[in-house]
Every structure is written in structure tokens, then in C-alpha cells.
Design goal:
heterodimer, A: mainly alpha, Arc Repressor Mutant, subunit A, 80% helix, elongated, B: mainly alpha
Chain lengths: 189, 115
């Protein structure tokens, strides 16, 4: 285990602070991807860190510290979603995207359909897709993080990819392209 | 044989479409990764950790005190009822057992129905 983590576990506040400062941007960016909402990402990052202060003694160094952080952050977000659904205070999708879109515009970057398609997915599908295909975690590890079986993770990732494909009309594009190719081949003969 | 060939071609088409979708997703998420994130200074983190630890300790002390007070109250009640009115003690014990058993049974049957 890292020396800095050992020191933090022994109660060294400075080591703890360094550990958090190093991992903070990574954590916020991860949360931005799964929430699609920069404000919520910062709030959740701070809540995740407060949970880490209480739970650091439970960290055994089996996985990377960043993986442990992601796991706590993910479960904190899922708990929030459940609470919000229960309270029926679920914001409209467009409203939560607004701030992220604003960030894109301020950097002269275009908001694209893939982000909209990802945002439309339910969080229990979006999170495994991001963890699998962006962060490269194996299905088993994602399953451990989300407390579900690897098979469930696999099917959620698959269904999610299919939904994004449908939303982006990739199948239609591919079909049109193959039709065009076929037509041009026939024209040649 | 022909069927197998068609299935293989369809699978190849599906895999291509999947990998294109995954590429699109990665590119889109990369854009989010490039958004600059303001990280507070070290002192802010240190202060946050100290505050959190203090609050955690306060909460622990409060919870433990509450637990001991309630435990003392219940124990006093039981001892008094046992020494002065044993019948009340027996009724209380029986009510406790019935309540626990019925509550557990109800929860278990709900879980089974949910599955």
C-alpha cells in the first residue's frame, strides 16, 4: 500500500489532504460523466470524500485508491437517485444538461448526439458503460462496485450500447452505406 | 452452411456497429474529461477532514449516549417488573417474542413475493 495512504490511515491529516487533492479532479470528472451535471458532480465529490474520511480504515489496498473512490462515489450517486425518485423531485433531462452544455459552449466545443444519447440512459445502464468502455474495468470489478453480478453488468452494457446505437441511427447509416456500395458495384458491372 | 454464413456476416456487421458506437461514446466522454476542474487548496481539504472527523466523533458520542440511556431505561423497567409484578414481565416477554416473530415472517414473505 502507498505510504501516503498508510499515513492517512494512521490519522495524518496532511497525508489525507494530499490524497484527496491528488484525486479530486479525477473524481469530479468521473462524476461529471455519470451524472452529466457539473454541479451535482462537485456536490457528490465532496460527499464522497466525507464518506472516505469515515471509511478509510476499511480500505485494504486490494484495488487502486482511485477505484475505491469511484466505487464509493458511484454508490453515493445511486443512493441519491433512489432518494430523488422517491421524493419525485426528478429534474428534467434538459435542465441537468444545461450546465454541461454551457461548459462546452464556453470552450467552443460542440455538444453532440452521443452525449445526449448517453444522458437519456438510466443511471444503472450509463454507469456500467462508462466504467467498462471509458475506464476499462472488467465486468467482475464493476459488478463488485455496483453490488450486482458480472452477468447483469454485461447485459446492461450490451443493452445500453444497443440503445445508443439506435439513438445515433448507426445501423441505418451502415445499412445505407452498404446499399450505396452494393449499388456502385452493380453499376460498375 | 449458408445460414451459418449469413449469421457470421450479421454478427460481423453487429460487432462493427458496436465498436463504432463505443468509439463515439469514448470520444464524447473525452470531451467531458477536458473540462477544467478547479481543485481547492490543500488547506481546504485539511479543514474539511478535521471538521468531518470532529462531527463523526460528536455523532458517535451522541449515538452511544442515546443507546446507553435507552438500554438503562429498558433494563430498569424489566428488573422492576420482574421483582414487583412477574406477570407483567412474562406478558412483556411474550409480546416481544410474538412481535419479533411476526415482523420477521412478514418481511420474509414480502421478500419472497418480490422475487
Amino acid at each position: 500500500m502507498d505510504d501516503i495512504i498508510k499515513s492517512a490511515k494512521q490519522g495524518d491529516h496532511i497525508a489525507f489532504a494530499i490524497l484527496f487533492k491528488e484525486n479530486y479532479p479525477f473524481l469530479v470528472k468521473y462524476l461529471m460523466k455519470i451524472t452529466m451535471n457539473p454541479d451535482a458532480a462537485e456536490e457528490l465529490a465532496q460527499e464522497t470524500m466525507t464518506k472516505c474520511v469515515q471509511k478509510l480504515q476499511l480500505y485494504n489496498g486490494e484495488s487502486k485508491f482511485s477505484t475505491w473512490l469511484i466505487s464509493i462515489a458511484t454508490n453515493t450517486y445511486i443512493d441519491h437517485c433512489r432518494k430523488k425518485k422517491r421524493e419525485k423531485e426528478w429534474h428534467l433531462q434538459e435542465e441537468s444538461f444545461r450546465k454541461l452544455k454551457w461548459h462546452f459552449e464556453s470552450r467552443n466545443e460542440e455538444w453532440n448526439d452521443t452525449l445526449s444519447a448517453l444522458g437519456k440512459l438510466p443511471e444503472e445502464v450509463r454507469i456500467p458503460i462508462i466504467l467498462k468502455h471509458y475506464y476499462g474495468y472488467p465486468y467482475e470489478e464493476i459488478g463488485k462496485m455496483l453490488r450486482i453480478s458480472a452477468g447483469t453488468v454485461k447485459s446492461r452494457v450490451h443493452n445500453g450500447i444497443m440503445s445508443v446505437r439506435r439513438e445515433l441511427k448507426i445501423d441505418e447509416e451502415a445499412e445505407n452505406r452498404s446499399n450505396r456500395e452494393r449499388a456502385s458495384k452493380q453499376g460498375r458491372f | 452452411m449458408k445460414k451459418q454464413k449469413i449469421v457470421a456476416i450479421e454478427n460481423e456487421h453487429l460487432n462493427k456497429a458496436d465498436s463504432r458506437t463505443i468509439d463515439e461514446i469514448i470520444q464524447a466522454l473525452d470531451k467531458i474529461d477536458h473540462i477544467p476542474v478547479y481543485s481547492p487548496d490543500l488547506h481546504w481539504f485539511e479543514q474539511m477532514i478535521l471538521n468531518e472527523k470532529q462531527q463523526y466523533q460528536k455523532k458517535l458520542i451522541r449515538d452511544l449516549s442515546l443507546f446507553f440511556i435507552i438500554a438503562a431505561f429498558i433494563l430498569t423497567g424489566i428488573i422492576v417488573s420482574l421483582s414487583h409484578k412477574p406477570i407483567v414481565f412474562i406478558v412483556l416477554q411474550a409480546a416481544g417474542i410474538i412481535f419479533t416473530a411476526s415482523y420477521t415472517g412478514l418481511r420474509f414473505s414480502r421478500k419472497v413475493n418480490d422475487i
